[in-house]
Amino acid sequence: MSKECDYCSGKGYITCNSCQGKGLITKPQPNNVGIAYIRPDRIQYTQNIFDTCPKCYGKGVIKCSKCKGKKIIKIKQK
Questions:
Q1: pLDDT attached to residue 46
Q2: What pLDDT does residue 33 have?
Q3: Alpha-carbon span 2 to 52, nearest angstrom
Q4: Spatial CB neighbours of 69, under 8 Å, sequence gap ≥ 6
């Protein structure tokens, strides 16, 4: 016997929690790259660089870990 997966509501996928479904993450970039004599503790991070999310590969969703993307789960009969 099987039923709809409760974890993903039968969609087979869930929203990526690393990028909140956007497919992109931000990485802070130091504003003074290339200046070697600046002390590391004084580098100010002011610019954000967008990069593809490594968890969902830019899709914004990941396969449901409970149903493995099949949308249904098997339940044991008593």
A1: 62
A2: 54
A3: 36
A4: 12, 13, 63
Distance, CA of 75 to CA of 77 (rounded, Å): 6
Residue 77, both tokens: 């009969």
Q: Of 24 and 32, which is predicted with more confidence?
A: 24
Radius of gyration, CA atoms only, the chain: 21
**What is residue 29's DSSP assignment?**
E
Q: Rounded mean pLDDT of the chain?
A: 83
CB 53 within 8 A of CB 16: yes
Token pair of 34 as six digits: 């290339």
Which DSSP category does 48 fall into?
Answer: E
Distance CA 55, CA 34 (A): 30
Half-sphere exposure in the Cβ direction for 67 (13 Å, CA): 21
Specify the residue for token string 């949308």: 71
- Return the H-helix or E-strand segment holding 72: strand 72-74
